[in-house]
Amino acid sequence: MFNALMLDKQDDRTVASIQSIDESRLASHGGVDVLVRVDFSTLNYKDGLAITGKIPVVRKWPMVPGIDFAGVVETSSHPDYQPGDKVVMNGWGAGETHWGGLAQKARVPGDHLIALPATITTRQAMAVGTAGYTAMLCVQALEKHGVATQDGDVLVTGANGGVGSFAVAILAKRGYRVIASTGRPEEAARLRELGAADIVERATLSEPGKPLQKERWAAAVDCVGSHTLANVCASLRYGGAVAACGLAQGMDLPATVAPFILRGVALLGVDSVYVPRERRVAAWQAIADEVPVATIERVATTITLADAPEAAARLLRGEIKGRVIVDVNA
């Protein structure tokens, strides 16, 4: 038996509770399963949506949420993993189509895991989580497109969020001049500590704007979507690019083709859920090499499994700063 946060559907409402689950209920995945003793999970924006039921993230019921986990292999029929190996998982439909990481145990296909870099602990991995992993994918996408430090300022929208904060830190460490957009000016000092050279008020980007605006940014990481992403595209410099990975403002994109056909800008979609294994490994190794995970771990908030529903609601209200680590065994 093991403890898990379980989501059930009752009268069109999502109800979350801590339940004791028999290990036999963990689904098999075609004979290449890995059973992981989870050490830590985390709370992401998508987890908040699933737990609160604000948006129909969950596709099957009942569901154990949690798109991330890090832990130790207990049993494995996959050739790449042996008992005792430390592993991390991000995405692959966890917490949506199959049981996720907010539990003391998880059984997943071995191909969904990667070995945790030796310099990162399982707790530190969840201080990074999908947020840091996605931010690294965004930076790598921009650099693959050809964005270089000498090209000019790089904007990060939603900079106070998990992905945004990591994007600011990673870009700054790589030598870019980073401009952070936030609706919380009281967090300006923290963003500057992460490496932001300047701060812009969220409201300057979040309202409907002209289809083509003054050229301001060489590139951007957008975690917000909607009018913000439209305004970012409209104000990119000629040949610039934006890596889009979020929808905090909305899923719509009220833009025109003007920036794309008149300035040759590029909109690079960044998915973190179904990224091929090779890119996952490269992203996590880059995190191990570049991101000060020990510092991030120290400033992260640690909660118990039982705390997760209330913390999920606070996360969606914007009341939580920084990363949230869930100690599933506390």
From TrEMBL:
It comes from the Bacteria. Residues 13-326 form the Enoyl reductase (ER) domain. SMART domains: PKS_ER (SM00829). SUPFAM superfamilies: GroES-like (SSF50129), NAD(P)-binding Rossmann-fold domains (SSF51735). It holds the Pfam family ADH_N. GO terms for molecular function: acryloyl-CoA reductase (NADPH) activity. This is Quinone oxidoreductase. It comes from Caballeronia pedi.
